[in-house]
Amino acid sequence: MDSALRPVLVLCIAVGISLAAGYALDRSLRRVDARHPETPLWHLLRRCGIPLQVVLCTAILRGGYRTAHFSDRHEDAVGQFLVLVLIAASGWLVVRSAAAITDSSYARYTAVSRDIGKIRRLRTQVTLIQRVFSAIVGVIAVASMLFTFPAMRTVGASVLASAGIIGIVAGVAAQATLGNLFAGLQIAFGDMVRIGDTVVVDGEWGVVEEITLTFLSVRTWDERRITMPVSYFTSKPFENWSRGDPRMTGTVFFYLDHSAPIDLMRKRMLEILEQAAEWDRRAWGLVVIDTTPSAIQVRALATAKDADDIFTLRCIVREQLIDWLRCEHPYALPRIATAPAPGQDEERLREAAPMPDSKDLGPGPGAR
Q1: What is the model's pLDDT at position 361?
Q2: Domain-located, residue 368
Q3: N or C: which end of the chain has fewer CB within 10 A?
Q4: 53-to-9, 43, 296 alpha-carbon distances in Å
Q5: DSSP state of 46
Q6: What pLDDT does residue 267 have?
Q7: CATH number, domain at 281?
Q8: How far apart are CA 86 and CA 59, in angstroms?
Q9: Total structural domains in the chain?
Q10: What gap in Å lies between CA 74 and CA 70, rounded to an integer?
């Protein structure tokens, strides 16, 4: 009976100590966070409570499982299992701690900075750095877990000796993946495109929603997601409307009749812009830029603070000017001539009428 209770007792002690330590740490972090609300690190470190409890519980079990008097057959298996769990939990704790530190730095920077471009760049860099670090910690943890097996330690020397050849073969086989990996790092630290930027790729307009080490996701205006390899942005041209100054100039084109009242149209456009909250009042204009035998081309120009506002402003100007022309000056709208000009029918009939023959005219006035 005593031998059956020993494992349960050891397990209860380990779980109790880990829960108590996790609770004490969480209470301490709460008190520190209450005293220093300007520093988000203490609040973010509370996310490390669960992996810390798993590490403590596993470490205690690993150190005291022999006192539970397992049989020789199960003792080695239990020890091996606890070592694997301890390595995995330690990697989990390291990743959570690093994420808390980087997220805290990002939150403190965004609280004091008003530069949207720098905030987006830092967010992109922090996201990619976290993923690179998580991948490295994961590889190290898996390698450490594998080398706990005696068979893996035996072949360790030969694996290290052939690492150069394996690296060359893997590099050739994963050329595209490695290209995307380095392209992702180039995007993060080259400030080419950032999370939240408005871009145009392959004729599609959207906002960069996610950047990973291998792909980039763009959310279009109609809620579609375009997933593209990050190497696309380092090898092909694309439009980034948010890079540098996000302010933009938009244009609206009209095809009107030659009799369109341009001066009145210009005044009406200014009234529309003054009522639109999207106009930033930097510049505006309305001019005739081209003419054809059947119509004139009018360009309306306005400015806004970003791509979203310029799109909305263009729609407002286009809709209200067309409605104003339709109601106040319908003659200015383009027309397609389907009737002949005045006097054109008489002229056509006169030209088509046959000339009378001389013998049909009869004798002249001097004939007898």
Answers
A1: 46
A2: no
A3: C
A4: 18, 17, 76
A5: G
A6: 93
A7: 3.30.70.100
A8: 7
A9: 2
A10: 6
* Number of Cβ atoms within 10 Å of the Cβ of 5: 11
**What pLDDT, on a 0 to 100 scale, did the predictor assign at position 316?**
94
Torsion, CA 253, CA 259, CA 260, CA 262, rounded to 10 = 100
Range of the domain at 307: 248-332
Element (H, E) at 39: none
Chain segment 210-219, per-residue pLDDT in tens: 877 777 888 8
Q: CA 235, 243, 314, 251: dihedral to nearest 10 degrees?
A: -70
The answer to whether position 282 is within a domain reads: yes
Where a domain ends, among 60, 87, 112?
A: 112
- Above 60 in pLDDT, residue 115? yes
Phi, psi values for residue 179, rounded to 5°:
-60, -45
On whether the CB atoms of residues 56 and 18 are closer than 8 A, the answer is yes
Of 63, 85, 112, the position where a domain reaches its end is 112
pLDDT in tens, 21-80: 888 888 888 888 788 777 777 778 888 888 888 888 888 877 776 665 555 556 677 777
Whether 29 is in a domain gets the answer yes
Who contacts 191 (Cβ-Cβ below 8 Å, separation ≥6)? 121, 243
| Percent residues over pLDDT 90 in the chain | 16
Q: Does 318 map to a domain?
A: yes
What letter does residue 365 receive in the DSSP assignment?
Answer: T
CA atoms within 13 A on the CB side of 187: 31
- What is the rounded distance in angstroms from the CA atom of residue 309 to the CA atom of residue 320? 16
Neighbours of 89 (CB within 10 A): 21
Cross-strand bridge partners of residue 211:
216
